[in-house]
Each structure stands twice: as structure tokens, then as C-alpha cells.
Amino acid sequence: MADYDFDVLIIGSGPGGYVAAIRAAQLGLRTACVESRETLGGTCLNVGCIPSKALLNASELYYEAASGALAKHGVKLGSVELDLPTMMADKDKAVTGLTGGIAFLFKKNKVEWIKGRGSFVDAHTVQVGDRTVTAKDIVIATGSSVTPLPGVEIDQKIVVDSTGAIALEKVPANMVVIGGGVIGLELGSVWQRLGAKVTVVEYLDQLLPGMDGEVRKEAAKIFKKQGMEIKLSTKVTGVAVNGDKATVTVEPAAGGAAETLEADVVLVAIGRRPNTDGLALDKVGLSTNARGQIETDARLQTAVPGIWAIGDVIPGPMLAHKAEDEGIAVAENIGGLTGILNHAVIPSVVYTHPEIAGVGLTEEQAREKGEVKVGKFPMAGNSRAKAIDDTVGWVKVIADATTDRVLGAWIITAPAGTMIAQVAQAMEFGATSEDIAYTCHAHPTHSEAIKEAAMGVRGKPIHV
Ligand code: FAD
Ligand code: NAI
């Protein structure tokens, strides 16, 4: 056997790459990870999941204090002031703590971090700066970047992408968000809570593509009620920056009269695309599909034996936990074990208030596949939600009409992101709605609403 520098070389240290590296090292493989950023952790830890969630939490605290929302619970405050630099510093601290944590875990597990951009020389060799590194197996975990809007230049001051939007120096009076997907709604919510007037421009006729139809409609209602202006079926035809303002020209997606929107900040959030530029995939005979993704088999191996790919750079939802699970599976496959993945059960969560979460099939997808029964329970009937006076939302459980197997669930309520794990686990165990309905849930918890929705699949919930 050829003598390689490493058993496994991973390109990219996001939640896919760093998890793969640690798992490979745990399995006794000599492992290195190439990362071109200053810090480990990829999009998620540096400019994605973590900083956005830190700001979502802090902005919610500010909003509750400043809007008088706490006063109705008998918590009266004096004047409330926003200290944006401290809020941003706190967010940065969360990022540094976690990215530093990965560096620590790399050292602990003896994973070598090779700093720089990696590009293929051949199927077992990667060039990083002036270093040539060889490995028996190579994992591409290069993630994704913001999809640009043709003709619109990101300057990260007035026209920003998500990276600029988590680092604004002041609260914009008016913010126009292009794209009513997850980033648009999460980061739009952050700045709205801090005082911006937010207008979301979405090309499709509903927000949140890919989610359950009823969820998408309900989301539009909820965000409108919170004061967000939402322009559905609307396309942006131009963004002109003049001084410290921008003018966004929009028109109906189907064509019609144009109108202009004035903004202090424009957030472009129309999706992300896989990172493959500069990898020199051609040198190993690999190409990308029509969506720019690298295709793999079920074991995550590409068309070239010994080259594997995971995370945002391959097909599937662009989610950190999907990348992490693939990271573990790929390392186990390389290490001679059988990596376990179930792409049918990947939860997705929008971390707004309320949170919006789903797993499995949407009701539309389930109905296309066959007969289904649906149970729905409003949070207005949930005692915990009532006790804290936050009753927006509902739980929907979708089950196969014949076998009663749970096919999917959708939840809108403050802790929906935490609650959805229960349904994901139930689905992994092949649970029926009856299994959930007869599982004892602690009282008073939001999770009781899942039990009641499951009761509603075949019979009736109690509290409606
Ligand atoms: P990435 O995290 O993108 O990491 C890839 C790494 O590879 C990068 O650090 C990059 O620098 C490096 N790299 C690329 N090319 C090379 C090269 N040639 N050589 C060396 N290094 C290279 N997902 C969730 O599940 N929950 C969330 O709450 C969430 N919030 C998000 C919020 C925002 C604002 C954004 C933008 C994304 C969010 N995501 C969230 C999505 C999540 O960040 C991604 O799905 C996840 O990071 C993908 O992981 P990855 O390992 O595939 O790639
Ligand atoms: P997205 O795909 O969620 O939403 C983009 C939206 O922009 C879509 O609704 C689309 O129809 C719309 N759009 C596209 N072109 C447009 C145009 N020209 N004009 C108006 N609207 C247009 O993408 P987003 O929000 O950029 O997020 C990227 C990825 O990051 C997502 O795939 C998501 O999985 C991930 N992410 C996940 C989070 C989470 O799990 N909580 C948080 C943030 C991001």
C-alpha cells in the first residue's frame, strides 16, 4: 500500500468537516483538516447558526423589555436602552468560544489543522499553499456561500448578505430583505425587534419554501402581525445605492407596475450555493450537477473511489445537523464501519418567535403518497402556553391512514425547535400516532400539544 501522509484528509472545517475529522481520529485514523478561514467551525460557527442565534436571543430580550411585553406579566422596567456594541460583542464572544472549542477538540483528538485553501492535485493529493499533502481518503466538506443576486453588489454596509447582517453597526430605520426564506425571517426578526421597519420581498407566493403549506400561510400571518411588511409574488428588478441609502425596485412576479422601496440596509438572502470553485475537481475527474453540487452514493462516496463528500456541498437540505450526521457517517464508512443516515428524518427549525419546526413529510407530500390522517392541536388549548400568555401556533401530526405510522409533524410555538426532536425520535423508531398519544408527557409543558395532536389523528384531543 502506498505510504500516505494521512489516512484521511478533510477539506473544510464546518459542522460536516470538523465532526468527520474528530470521528475519524476517534476511530484511530491519522487525520488532517484543511481550512482557509482564520478560525475553525465553518459557516455555522463563524457567521451562521451561532451568531444568528445569539442575536435572535439578545434581540428578543431587548424587545420584551422595550415593547412593554414584560409589563403585562407584572415586570415593570424604567427606561430601556439598546447597547448594540455590547450585544455584538456578546455575540462575538459566543463565536470565539465555540470556534476555539473546535481548535481544542482538534488538539485533544490529534487532528492536524492545515491552514490554507486546498485544491486537488490527484485523487490522493491536495495542494495547500506550498504544502503537498497526501491521504488515502479525502473528504470534500467545503460547504456553501451566499447566492448572489445578479446585478446587485454586496458592500456589507448598505447592501449586505447574512454575514453583513449579523454585524451592522447601527439599527437601520428601514430594512428591505430580499428573500422570505429562513435567513430573511430570522435576521429580519432580529433587526425588527431592535427597531427597524422591515419589508420582506419574496418571489414565490408564500414564505419558507419547502415547508408545510399551512405552516407557510400561518408564518406570513404571524410575521405580518408582528409588523413585518411582506410582499409575496414580488420580484426585485434592481437595487441602486445613493449615498447612505438604497432604492429597491420591485414588481409583481407575474409582471406589472414597478414600485420602489427606500432602505437604509438591503439584506440579500435568496439562498446559498455549494463551494467548489478552486478545488480543481477536474484533476480527479469529478464534476458537479446542474445545481453545482457534488453527487455521492448512499455511503457518501463520490464517483471517484476514496473521495467522499458531505454537507452543504452535496444534495439535501443545507443544515448544520445534516452536515454533522454526514460527518460521522462518512468517517465511520471510511473507518470500516457502517455509517447510519436517514435523510427522511431531518428536522428543520426557523428560530424566530414563535419558532417554526418540522420533520418528515409536509401534508401535501404525504397526501401525494397516499391516504393520511391529520391531527392538529392549537397552542391556545395548551395550559403551559396559556400560563405564560404566549398561545400563538399549533402542532400538526400527519400519519398514514392505514398503518398509523407518523409521516411528519409541524410545530409553531416558542420552543418548537426543541419539541421537534421528540417527533424525529418517534419517527426513527417507526412510531404510530397512537404511540405518541399514549406516551405520558409532563404537565404543564408545550410538548403536551404533540400528544394532543397525536390524539387528534384517530380520535379527539381533550383540551379543545
Ligand atoms: P460550512 O459550514 O460552510 O464549512 C465549510 C468550510 O470549508 C468553510 O469554513 C470554508 O472556509 C471551508 N472551505 C471551503 N473551501 C475550502 C478549500 N478549498 N480549502 C479549505 N477550506 C475550504 N443551519 C442549521 O442547521 N441551523 C441554523 O440555525 C442555521 N443558521 C444559519 C444561519 C446563517 C446566517 C447561515 C448563513 C447558515 C445557517 N445554517 C444553519 C446553515 C449551516 O450554517 C450550514 O448548513 C452548515 O454550516 C454546513 O456545514 P458544512 O460543513 O457543509 O459547510
Ligand atoms: P432559502 O432558500 O431558505 O430562502 C430563499 C428565499 O428567497 C426563497 O423563499 C426564494 O423563493 C427567495 N428568492 C430567491 N430568489 C429571489 C429573488 N430574486 N427575489 C425575491 N426572492 C427570491 O435561503 P436563505 O434564507 O438564503 O438560507 C440559505 C440556507 O441556509 C437555507 O437553505 C437554510 O437551510 C440555511 N439556513 C438555515 C437556518 C436554520 O436552520 N434555522 C437559518 C439560516 C439559514
UniProtKB/TrEMBL annotation:
Organism ancestry: Bacteria, Pseudomonadati, Pseudomonadota, Alphaproteobacteria, Sphingomonadales
An example molecular function term from Gene Ontology annotations: flavin adenine dinucleotide binding
Family, similarity comment: Belongs to the class-I pyridine nucleotide-disulfide oxidoreductase family.
Species this chain originates from: Sphingomonas hengshuiensis
Residue numbers binding FAD: K53, G118, T142, G143, S144, D312, M318, L319, A320, H321
Disulfide bonds: C44-C49
Any one Gene Ontology BP term: 2-oxoglutarate metabolic process
Cofactor note: Binds 1 FAD per subunit.
InterPro entries: Class-I_Pyr_Nuc-Dis_Oxidored (IPR050151), FAD/NAD-bd_sf (IPR036188), FAD/NAD-binding_dom (IPR023753), FAD/NAD-linked_Rdtase_dimer_sf (IPR016156), Lipoamide_DH (IPR006258), Pyr_nuc-diS_OxRdtase (IPR001100), Pyr_nucl-diS_OxRdtase_dimer (IPR004099), Pyr_OxRdtase_I_AS (IPR012999)
EC identifiers of the protein: 1.8.1.4
Keyword tags: Disulfide bond, FAD, Flavoprotein, NAD, Nucleotide-binding, Oxidoreductase, Redox-active center
Domain of life: Bacteria
Residues binding NAD(+): G179, G180, G181, V182, I183, G184, L185, E186, E202, G271
Reaction(s) the record says it catalyses: N(6)-[(R)-dihydrolipoyl]-L-lysyl-[protein] + NAD(+) = N(6)-[(R)-lipoyl]-L-lysyl-[protein] + NADH + H(+)
Misc: The active site is a redox-active disulfide bond.
Coiled-coil annotated spans: none
Cofactor requirements of the protein: FAD
PROSITE patterns tied to this protein: PYRIDINE_REDOX_1
Domain called Pyridine nucleotide-disulphide oxidoreductase dimerisation: residue spans: 346-454
Active site: H443
Protein name, entry field: Dihydrolipoyl dehydrogenase
The keyword DNA repair is annotated on this UniProt entry: no
Pfam name, any one: Pyr_redox_2
Top-rank EC class of the record's enzyme: oxidoreductase
Any GO CC annotation of this UniProt entry: oxoglutarate dehydrogenase complex
Domain FAD/NAD(P)-binding: 6-327
SUPFAM superfamilies, alphabetized: FAD/NAD(P)-binding domain, FAD/NAD-linked reductases, dimerisation (C-terminal) domain
